[in-house]
């Protein structure tokens, strides 16, 4: 295998080998669309009239991952390519995959696909585009259109509801009228799709730089209410106008999405979406008429845990997002923190994302960034040494002083660390002397 061979050249070799053996073979789907739009494909799917067993016989290294559906993985150079036999799909009974398939012509294969822009073929050997569905014209018009009857296409695979939103958002394409009506009228059926597949589409939508358009399409189609009812509930949840002149919590959340940088992590964008989902459940009005959301951060963290678990996010993504939601109100108190507490706060593993959440939270509402600037300045101030340096003493030294292991150990070690972080204890000898005097000696605070 040669690492110098590019993905595109390796894909071309697969097509060449199929054609040299007397078969029809084309690039298919998204890679053709991307090439026509001037975007370098990140993978290449290949469609052929060779049957699965013929593909396996032709290539030395293959994986029969979907032979029942005519799909074989071909390992070429350092890459994997999905090679699929042109097919017709049988009846869809579960809103996901056909009960059976039959091998077919290229034209029949094109017409079973979801949207016209994904129904294109390209012959890289002849340099020829093959378009049976009008995809090239829709690409030129920036139009997302279902192939054939949109209700049929969406009934076959309910995930196409979210794929329509994703393509409409990420490509900045309009959805043609019939396709859009079909999406809206079928939004409630999205729950026929597994939580994992829903999650994957949502992540692609919200990681896109066009995430606000994705948010709007999810909202307008009814898919937001179906898959993220916690966000739908933010509509009409009014906020104190002196801190949130921008409007209700739903509007506030949408504005924050638009303030994020192009590249974001999953926990960051989800913490923006979910940081205030506890507000409707904690909404209250004081006797003086002021709106309050006491404890919305705690409730929001619990709701975020439940929501992300429902959508089968990874434990690491859940933990990072929940922590950001739970701590987003702590930022208002950072200038009053003692040095030790501030250093521990800044040393948490996802602080970069949490700082960005705080920045867009403030920018989208009252506009005051004093705490954000304070934390940035403190990070620079503390940059010359580790925020949490190696401990001056450990439990071993406490045992040597005659202490028995137990809860008091953690209390003493935390107290020592706090003074180390604040600079009042600098050596192990000083730390041990302080423990002897303040924790073990006569008259000490814990004697």
UniProtKB/TrEMBL annotation:
Record field: transmembrane: none
Protein name: tRNA adenylyltransferase
Domain tRNA nucleotidyltransferase/poly(A) polymerase RNA and SrmB- binding: 173-233
The keyword ATP-binding is assigned to this record: no
Cofactor(s), names only, from the UniProt record: Mg(2+)
Domain called Poly A polymerase head: residue spans: 25-145
Keywords: Magnesium, Metal-binding, Nucleotide-binding, Nucleotidyltransferase, RNA-binding, Transferase, tRNA processing
Matches recorded under SUPFAM superfamilies: Nucleotidyltransferase (SSF81301), Poly A polymerase C-terminal region-like (SSF81891)
One of the GO BP terms on file: tRNA processing
An example Gene Ontology molecular-function term: CCA tRNA nucleotidyltransferase activity
Domain HD: 268-335
Organism: Chthoniobacter flavus Ellin428
Keyword flag Glycoprotein: no
Record family assignment: Belongs to the tRNA nucleotidyltransferase/poly(A) polymerase family.
EC number: 2.7.7.72
């Amino acid at each position: 295998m040669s690492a110098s061979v590019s993905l595109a050249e390796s894909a071309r070799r697969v097509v060449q080998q199929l054609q040299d053996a007397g078969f029809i073979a084309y690039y298919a789907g998204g890679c053709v669309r991307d090439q026509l739009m001037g975007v370098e494909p990140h993978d290449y799917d290949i469609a052929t009239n060779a049957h699965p067993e013929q593909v396996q016989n032709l290539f030395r290294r293959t994986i029969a991952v979907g032979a029942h559906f005519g799909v074989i993985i071909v390992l070429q150079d350092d890459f994997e390519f999905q090679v699929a036999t042109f097919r017709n799909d049988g009846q869809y009974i579960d809103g996901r995959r056909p009960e059976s398939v039959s091998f077919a012509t290229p034209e029949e294969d094109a017409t079973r696909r979801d949207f016209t822009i994904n129904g294109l073929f390209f012959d890289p050997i002849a340099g020829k585009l093959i378009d049976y569905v009008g995809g090239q014209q829709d690409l030129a018009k920036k139009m997302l259109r279902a192939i054939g009857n949109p209700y049929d296409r969406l009934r076959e695979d309910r995930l196409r509801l979210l794929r329509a939103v994703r393509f409409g958002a990420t490509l900045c394409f309009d959805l043609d009228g019939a396709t859009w009506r079909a999406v809206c009228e079928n939004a409630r059926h999205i729950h026929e799709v597994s939580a994992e597949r829903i999650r994957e589409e949502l992540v692609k939508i919200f990681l896109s730089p066009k995430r606000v358009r994705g948010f709007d399409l999810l909202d307008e189609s009814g898919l937001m209410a179906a898959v993220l009812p916690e966000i739908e509930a933010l509509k009409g949840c009014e906020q104190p106008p002196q801190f949130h002149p921008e409007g209700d919590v739903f509007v506030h959340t949408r504005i924050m999405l638009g303030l994020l940088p192009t590249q974001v992590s999953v926990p960051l964008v989800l913490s923006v979406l979910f940081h205030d989902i506890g507000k409707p459940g904690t909404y209250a009005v004081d006797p003086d008429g002021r709106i309050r959301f006491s404890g919305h951060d705690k409730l929001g963290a619990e709701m975020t845990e439940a929501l992300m678990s429902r959508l089968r996010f990874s434990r690491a993504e859940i933990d990072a997002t929940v922590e950001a939601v739970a701590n987003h109100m702590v930022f208002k108190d950072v200038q009053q923190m003692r040095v030790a507490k501030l250093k521990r706060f800044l040393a948490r593993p996802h602080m970069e994302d949490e700082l960005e959440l705080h920045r867009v939270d403030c920018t989208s509402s009252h506009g005051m960034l004093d705490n954000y600037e304070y934390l940035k300045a403190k990070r620079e101030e503390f940059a010359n040494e580790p925020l949490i340096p190696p401990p001056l003493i450990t439990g071993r030294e406490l045992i040597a002083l005659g202490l028995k292991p137990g809860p008091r150990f953690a209390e003493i070690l935390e107290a020592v660390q706090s003074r180390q972080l604040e600079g009042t204890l600098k050596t192990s000898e000083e730390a041990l002397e302080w423990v002897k005097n303040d924790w073990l000696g006569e008259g000490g605070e814990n004697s």
